[in-house]
User: What shape does this take?
Amino acid sequence: MSSRRQFLAIAAAATACLSSGAALAQGYPSRTITLVVPFAAGGPTDVVARALSVPMAKALGQTVVVENKTGAGGTLAAAAVARANPDGYTYLIHHNGMATAPSLYRKLPYNPLTDFEHVSQVVDVPMTLLARKDLPAKNFPELLGYLKAQGSKINLAHAGLGAVSHLCGMVFRQAIGVDMTTVPYQGTGPAMAALLGGQVDLLCDQTTQTVPQIKAGTVRFYGVTTAQRIKALPDAPTLAEQGLKGFEVMVWHGVYAPKGTPKDATEKFGAALRSALKDPNFAARMAELGAEIVPDAKLAPEGLRAG
Ligand code: MLT
Assistant: This one.
């Protein structure tokens, strides 16, 4: 081939590449997008994902389907999304568990930093310490006495190794020096059902699931895990102010796509996410449930990567 023909062939190939990228930007999304939740339906991550999916669908002009893929503290879902087709139609919403899994699982089949495109942070959510309604301890000092007396007879529910309910439970267990028995579920949705049914004693869980139960009086509630009191439960003391000095657990959430997802797809999805977070109905629902929409600087790939 002459050098001129070679040049024309390369130029034609480059134009084809450019126009296929442009076609994705213009036509995307042309079908339903799946947002994978790594825990059971009805739980706190699911609540945020389903509330987001409505304004996001409006912004994208396509349905956003929430799919619950449970197991192994959220790592099965993350592994599935890491392996999914990077075509812009599969995303994952996850939390602190994404960052802690590498130190908790010996054989994690994905790398949270290199196997995903980071899209954006979403909301920060406080946690609350709860017990079954008929637990004899009526307040935090009574709870400490009761737990010390009962020790490993106490069943602490959680959503699997590395779930935030597990991390919060472990930090609490260590702070009070009581070795409770842990009971894993596929999410804190089913863990909450077990608490309401009296099958387990204790649960540390996010306000996005617990505020309605606390307000309805269906659980015993001992305090929030944040450094300061929160607007959604203004009368509730923090665990730190009740004697657990320095106790602080807060949950961040982020959205990821499989590595290799075209940038114009993640950017369009990220823009729809940012507009959904500003939707007045979504913002009001999150405020009612104690969730804080993250500052604008975190609503970007680098905002999620930086944590
Ligand atoms: C859930 O959505 O079930 C929770 O976020 C699980 C957890 O405690 O991490």
